Amino acid sequence: MPWAIWITGLPGSGKSTIARELGEKLKENGVSFKILRLDEIRKKIVPNPKYTEAEREYVYEKFIDAGLDIIARGENLIFDATAHRKKWRDKVRKLIKNFMEVYVRCDLETCIQREEKRKEGLVIAEMYRKALERRNKGKIFEGLGEVVGVDVPYEENKDAELAIDSAKTNVAEAGDMIISQVKKRKWI
Q: Which of 25, 31, 89, 132 is the most buried (most CB within 10 A)?
């Protein structure tokens, strides 16, 4: 029976890096899987995103549907998405029997430092700095929507199967922690 792991947390928390590390560890164990990255899916669904709450509702609905299709084909799945609304993760939890939520905890200051190094691409570069400047000085930035962690809160799930503090845990350790949980569940 296929399983799904949702790696969630603030932008810049290290979700994608941990998802890649988990992927490498799964390959080492001979496990096939897909990684579904929201940043890649969003650009296909909404070529010029505004990052409004209504748009996020639509995008997450499509993202979840894409994930459910992968699971329905019998493939294992890693969701790589902020999913700042707990209800999105809870919806998937109800629909997929073998589900695990991995919350990548990281303080906002560390996320800001990491995001400053991000180049323009799938998401706007320096989004935290710009969001804080907008909030504090009223400056307008083209293409900058509501930023999770500044403009809208991230809803932490206190009952996530695994919480990893990425400011204190290196990527290899994080991957090992997830693999350990996967093995305990006898998914591999």
A: 89
